[in-house]
Predict the structure.
Amino acid sequence: MQALTTVFTPPSWCANRFAVYIDNTGPGTSTLNPQSGWVDPSFTKCVPTQYTEKCPTFSPGICPKNMHIVTSTSHVHDTTTIWTGGCCQSGFMTIDFDPRFLCTSVISTPMAFLLEPNISTADVYTTLSTSSLMLEHDQMTVEWESTDLPNFPSEVAKSYASIMKIAFPLTTDHASPTIPAELAFPQSTQGLVQGLSPSILPLTTSFQLATGRPASGLAPSLSTSDHLSATTISKSSGRLETTMQLILAGWLGIIWQLC
């Protein structure tokens, strides 16, 4: 199957090109249903170039300008829903007992027809007057799925989406999650520090460092207190530097007690 994703617009003279065969060989005259199709030498100019066989199917596909979908069905292949539509000219419908191949319409007023089998590009028409005559033309079938809609012209996509009972344009939520302001990534190094700790109070930690050895049987009474303070974080001294100072002071206190 070939694809047909652009709207084919046939020339205006293609409208109402139906050929009729009148059989005069019997005891009476028999008129077969007028048809539009390959019997007409100019038929190929009135259909898309992909139209290379009777009753073609295009996938993905859309109806030509002079046709519209008159019947539709859907089926699931694997996990994908595929839609099938039958295209007929305006005023035509499918045949009830077999809606797959022909589109038909009934006329009750005089109409000009090309006469088979002597049809040529000269387009000689013969007008027939009849109380009721059924016209026929080959149905064209199109298939599509929801992911094909963005590749179709907008108006066609909307029409096919309505058949599928879905909205078009297709709505997909690609919105980024909202990040709280306090977790937002800052714009600078200074902003990073401020973003992590907008207000750090001065941190004071005291260590009591004991020095000296026992003399004359008396326990030493001397003690040394050393206070280390961590000031507010600035550009030159980060939080890491302050923390390392505190750790270093703690280790010095332990070493002095061991001496």
Remarks:
- Residues 173-180, 182-237 have pLDDT under 50 and may be disordered.
- The helical segments are 154-164, 189-196, 239-258.
